[in-house]
Amino acid sequence: MTGRRSGGALLAVLLLSGCTSFADGDPPRVDAAPATTQAPADPTACPAERAGPDPDRPVIDYDFRLADDLRTVTGSETVVFTPDLPTDELVFRLVPNAPESAPAGNGLVVDGVRGDDVRGGGYEAAGGAGPGGLYVVQLDDELAAGESTEVRLDFTLSIGEGGFERFGVAEGITWWGSGAPLLAWETGVGWARDPFVGLTGETASSEAADVTLTVSAPEQLTVLMTGARARPSEPRDGRRTWRATEPVARDVAVAAGPFGTAEQETPGGVLVRAGALVDGELEPAELLDQTVAAIAELEAFLGPFPYETLTVALLPDFGGGIEYPGMILEATPSRDVLVHEVAHMWFYGMVGNSQFRDPWLDEAFATWAEAVPDPPPARAVESAVDREGDVGGSMDQFAGDRPYVSAVYGKGGAALLAAREAAGPPAFDEAIRCYVDATAWSIATPEDVAAALADLPAAVDVLVRAGALDADG
Ligand SMILES: [Zn+2]
Fold first, then answer.
1. Distances (CA, A) of 43 to 46, 441, 457
2. Each residue of 175-226: pLDDT tens digit?
3. Which of 27, 290, 357, 360 is surrounded by the most beta carbons within 10 Å?
4. How many angstroms separate the alpha carbon of residue 53 from the centre of ligand 1?
């Protein structure tokens, strides 16, 4: 996610604190260091290839129906869940009931739950607005590790006034991300029952799932959504149905509206689709060109783009962007914000994290990646690293959006840039590439970052000083 402050997150955060070095300076263009192919000293430290997804990951079938009022989505979600630890329940996070989302008219209600092993279900508050922030399905018996169960939830999503949010209706566009109950499992840990904290940042944790996504919408609307090569059915009874699959999606997002679209395949075979309102601030072809360029820029040091398809929907300008697997809700025509959200396809989409416990693992890394191709002056980076706040703080440790964004995005992105300089960019980029490949499609932890940087003590020192990593590793 990138906040409503315009421009790149790192830049915005420096401006926020009164430092205008990024804006005033004219930093020299520095080409991204390509990842080297040199073997690491310890062959066990860096995987020979990117890790694949867990074969026992959840299999989730989402079915959304956008009503003709463009504000109500009725849906169902069928989940086949195979835990790696014993459990007698399934916990779902109801993101639309977050306290910062509900006042605009957003809300998610579970209408029913079914399944051979299901005893019942109910809400838990978890700091959410009514009826609650979590929905918990109780099973008849404990499910053993490796044993599967299938559960179906029916739900109704209400979508309120458009704003810089995961849900909204504005200018004939309806969008929703995290609009269905989100399976809140973390492999090796268990259920994520973290409270909502009232900040704009994400607080969810969800494993990559094998997803099928179906969206029924009024036939005049174009649907842009998570999933590979989504295509519509023929119109029937005034509606069209769009269907796609994505074998490694932690969550899904949808935007339906009178979009014009443009699409192109990258040299690496990624299909990029860009959608924007006709006569809007950015033509679909311009948005497409920017997205294709951002992918190339980031692939140069992060390795191949994680998904088969990337879809970008340009929403009215509410001043930010929100990342979803293979899908970006781009709520501003800013190129810097777009690069940040594309970087999230690696950091959040592929390398997952608990966005409540370790928000820096996606936000500091996306802010860093956004800055690598054109780094700010060293002086500005140093002053950002010296700021207050622990980069590695959890979401409940920040008093508001301002200290959160300052520490996690601004100081965090700067600390990673400073660590890169301290270690030497080629060595640092190679270590991050190893971290990305080793933790792909899992939920990473700060310990994974520390392990990848173990041979680069100068980089670790910077991150310890910034409160990102613990001194004892
Ligand atoms: Zn972000």
1. 6, 21, 18
2. 999 999 999 999 999 999 999 999 999 999 999 999 999 999 999 999 999 9
3. 360
4. 23
Domain that holds residue 256: 210-249+251-342
Provide CB contacts within 8 A for 48, sequence distance 6+. none
The total number of structural domains in the chain stands at 3
pLDDT, the chain, mean: 92
Q: Does the pLDDT at position 246 exceed 50?
A: yes
Distance 340 CA to ligand 1 centre (A): 6
Taking the centre of ligand 1 as the mean of its atom positions, its distance from the CA of residue 202, in whole angstroms, is: 9
How close is the Cα of 387 to the center of ligand 1, in Å? 20
Q: The domain spanning residue 228 has which CATH number?
A: 3.30.2010.30
Q: Which residues pair with 89 in a beta bridge?
A: 138
Whether the CB-CB separation of 427 and 456 falls below 8 Å is answered with yes
Who surrounds ion ligand 1 at CB < 5 A? 1-2, 363, 366
What separation in Å is there between the alpha carbon of 413 and the centre of ligand 1?
11
Whether 133 and 14 map to the same domain: the answer is no
Q: How far is the CA of 1 from the centre of ligand 1 (A)?
A: 3
Residue 470 lies in a domain: no
214 plus 337 within the same structural domain:
yes
Residue 170 lies in a domain: yes
State in Å: Cα 35 to ligand 1 middle.
Answer: 23
The alpha carbon of 367 and the centre of ligand 1 are apart by a number of angstroms equal to 7
Instruction: Return d(Cα 335, Cα 6) in angstroms, integer.
Output: 10
Q: Helix, strand or coil for residue 265? A: strand
> Ligand 1 centre and the CA of 191: distance in Å?
24
Q: Please give the C-alpha separations between residue 163 and each of 3, 38, 320, 332, 341, in angstroms, as whole numbers.
A: 12, 47, 10, 11, 18
Residue 1 located in a structural domain: no
- What mean pLDDT comes out for the span 42-60? 87
Q: The pTM is what?
A: 0.92
Q: Is the pLDDT of residue 17 over 90?
A: no
Using the mean position of ligand 1's atoms as its centre, give its distance from the Cα of residue 284 in Å: 23
What value does the mean pLDDT take over residues 294-317?
Answer: 98
| CATH code, domain with 189 | 2.60.40
Distance 290 CA to ligand 1 centre (A): 18
Both 42 and 87 in one domain: the answer is: no
Nearest to 223 by CA among 70, 396, 91, 414: 70
Q: Indicate if the pLDDT at residue 42 is higher than 90.
A: no
How far, in Å, is the centroid of ligand 1 from the Cα of 115? 36
Q: Do 315 and 256 belong together in one domain?
A: yes
